[in-house]
């Protein structure tokens, strides 16, 4: 037996657990009483919507009933070939399938039981995050250069594939805006966890985005891909979310347009995370705050993206350099985590606990 064949084969495990017609796996994400979770829009045919119009929706990345419910009529009308009348009819048909109204808090808490967490590779960092990176939410990590944002992204690409308590493991989509994605880094990380390296790489879909528009268009592909292989993808990474927006929009004159486009993109990401129960991890850069020196602020640097990004990210993690390979993470904003800190380290095998 070669050393390679002794390794755990991630891909086959993943493929077995999550094929589209494997009802058990779908049930693990979707509640029985929430049948619309992955419900294909094709069911609308029996409600009088014709297949050509359904195709138009799909080409715009809207593939599930939930996906339609998450879109405004205005956005649907903007899809080529869909008139206001047709949109009205589609919305009406969806309402019959998904009331989209109130749940009791108890029902909602049942729904949240589908949420899973992906380990970061460091137990201390996981603890800080309440057990790892949470699905159905956007987690943002920001910090100066060399603080480990890209290293954390790479580590998550691998750990997302490892089954753990209550989590089956799954595939990953990586959007790279800075050309810093390195498959060889993934190999060393896979080796640390004793995983089959090629299988790990084979489970990651990679796209290099060159403009902010391209970055946005890729989200349609993500939605289509997630729908095609429903339940297979567990993690979407955008490293980094702001880099291209910074280039494409310059100066104060274009700021409001930039923020508007950014808001659309983040709202799309947020919906994808909820619609397909996925972890969305984005990295962000920092800028010096010119007003800060005047106000004697302790930390004159702040994440870019303004209020739009601040409100879209569910959990914001601030990273800074510690001694040597150590890095310090701090919860900057979260709906349910206290503002505390954890130290982790960057190693050849990715993010790990600090030895200090
Ligand atoms: N194979 C490796 N083994 C150990 N440490 C590594 C390895 N590769 C990179 N590093 C460390 O990771 C750090 C770089 O981290 P990373 O690329 O994640 O930064 P970043 O926060 O993404 O920065 P930027 O803002 O420039 O994108 C460097 O300090 C480098 O020494
Ligand atoms: Mg980076």
How is the topology of this model organized?
Elements: H1 3-6, H2 10-17, H3 23-29, H4 51-59, H5 65-69, H6 73-77, H7 84-97, H8 105-111, E1 117-118, H9 123-128, E2 133-134, E3 137-143, H10 149-159, E4 171-176, H11 183-192, H12 197-202, E5 204-208, H13 212-228, E6 233-239, H14 243-248, H15 255-275, E7 279-284, E8 286-288, H16 292-295, E9 301-303, H17 306-312, E10 315-321, E11 326-333, E12 341-347, E13 350-353
Parallel strand pairs: 3-7, 3-10, 4-5, 4-6, 6-7
Antiparallel strand pairs: 1-2, 8-9, 10-11, 11-12, 12-13
Helix pairs in contact: 10-11, 13-15, 15-17
This protein binds adenosine-5'-triphosphate (ATP) and magnesium ion (MG).
Q: How many strands, which pairing sense, and closed or not: the largest β-sheet?
A: 9 strands, mixed
Helix content: 40-55%
Q: What is the CATH topology classification name of the largest domain?
A: Rossmann fold
Q: How many helices in DSSP terms? A: 17
Strand order of the largest sheet: 5-4-6-7-3-10-11-12-13
Low-confidence stretches: 1-6, 11-36
In the CATH scheme, the class of the largest domain would be: Alpha Beta
Radius of gyration, taken over Cα atoms and rounded to an integer in Å? 21 Å
- What is the residue-averaged pLDDT? 86
Number of strands: 13
CATH architecture assignment of the largest domain:
3-Layer(aba) Sandwich
Family: Belongs to the RecA family. DMC1 subfamily.
Main location: nucleus
Subunit structure: Double stacked ring-shaped homooctamer. Interacts with BRCA2. Interacts with the MND1-PSMC3IP heterodimer. Interacts with RAD51AP1; the interaction is direct and stimulates DMC1-mediated homologous recombination.
GO molecular function: ATP binding; ATP-dependent DNA damage sensor activity; DNA strand exchange activity; double-stranded DNA binding; single-stranded DNA binding
